[in-house]
Design goal:
The structure holds two protein chains of two kinds. Chain A is an alpha+beta fold. Chain A is built from two helices and four strands; from the N terminus they run βαββαβ. Chain B has a single domain, classed as Rossmann fold (3-Layer(aba) Sandwich), CATH 3.40.50.970. Chain B is built from nine helices and eight strands. The chains are: A alpha+beta, B alpha/beta.
Chain lengths: ~70, ~260
């Protein structure tokens, strides 16, 4: 099943991946990470199709995509 | 069975980048790193870091890097390339570094058509020093040194670097791209890769200008900042190819003006 894995040490919660996702899979976490940001996470995991668009726009290269 | 379809390139080190949230530098770092990895020239690549936000670029790129004096990237790149002509040499510069204090180095290396690549990040502001007006700041745009907006009477017009260089005969390849949406990022990567390929073919001076966002000094959220790129920056700095070698098969043929029969 396609999914993304966000490295919470790198993610700064800039939200750029959220509008980049055509399936509206990504949202921000309710709890903050070790670096003090609210990192991105999958809020709608079953809709992910592994298109990698979120990873293309991620400025911190924190997203790994599996398919 | 899960297959990895996208992962962090080995061309970047494992150090988390210290840029502000939503800064465009990270995307461009990734694109540059992926390009030299895909061309298989990591061992032969030498980069030059600028003075500016990306002054720590040497920590992030997994290649040999030199940190240059303010604006002198093209001069250092010239020296390296002339001593070691088989290396891939790129100079990574911001708009304050390249278009302001480094304007002479940029113009003269372009005029001599040195066989180097310049990656030029245009975010229309001085980021590291706290949001002062850059030569590329748009008219009416507020910065700490133009608190009521840039005016022609006091500050003149913003510099369009690609148009300026396209008036010279030296440059081989000039393109302006942006990183505001996934499709634009893919285009930006193609442009950087093409510039590197031309350099490896020994053709001459190549420059890729990338319109990037600076949410912190534009005093916006990252999402508002990419909206500003689309609304304000792209109309003043039109995207596209400004110079390309005509004997290359990727080049679009030049339009020839056909005289209308009277």
């Amino acid at each position: 099943m396609p999914k993304i894995d966000v490295d919470t040490i790198r993610c700064k919660g800039c939200e750029l991946c959220i509008p980049a996702c055509p399936k509206k899979v990504i949202g921000l976490s309710k709890t903050f990470s070790a670096t003090g940001y609210y990192p991105a996470m999958m809020v709608n995991p079953e809709d992910c199709n592994g298109c990698r668009l979120c990873a293309f726009v991620c400025p911190d290269v924190s997203i790994t995509v599996y398919k | 069975m899960e297959k990895v379809v996208f992962e962090r390139t080995k061309g970047l080190t494992d150090i988390p980048m210290r840029y502000c949230p939503g800064c465009g530098h990270g995307v461009v770092h990734r694109l540059v790193a992926e390009c030299f990895m895909e061309l298989g020239v990591q061992e032969k690549t030498i980069g030059i870091g600028p003075v500016g936000c990306s002054v720590f670029a040497d920590e992030y790129f997994n290649v040999d890097m030199i940190q240059g004096a303010h604006g002198r990237g093209p001069a250092i790149a010239t020296g390296i390339k002339r001593c070691l002509p088989d290396r891939l040499v790129f100079s990574y510069q911001g708009d304050g570094d390249l278009a302001s204090i480094g304007a002479a180095e940029m113009l003269h290396s372009a005029m001599r058509s040195e066989n180097i690549t310049i990656i030029f990040i245009n975010n229309a502001i001085y980021g590291m020093t706290g949001g002062q007006m850059a030569p590329t700041t748009l008219l009416g745009m507020k910065s700490t040194t133009s608190p009521s907006g840039r005016t022609v009477a006091a500050n003149g017009y913003p510099i369009r670097v690609c148009e300026l260089l396209s008036a010279m005969e030296g440059p081989i390849y000039l393109e302006r791209v942006s990183v505001d949406k996934p499709a634009a990022v893919v285009k930006a990567k193609k442009a950087i890769k093409r510039a590197f390929e031309y350099q490896l073919e020994g053709r001459g001076f190549t420059l890729v200008e990338i319109l990037s966002q600076c949410p912190t000094d534009w005093h916006m959220t990252p999402l508002q900042a990419i909206e500003k790129i689309r609304k304000d920056l792209i109309p003043y700095y039109p995207l596209g190819i400004y110079r390309e070698p005509q004997d290359d098969k990727r080049a679009k043929p030049k339009k020839v003006a056909v005289e209308k029969e009277s």
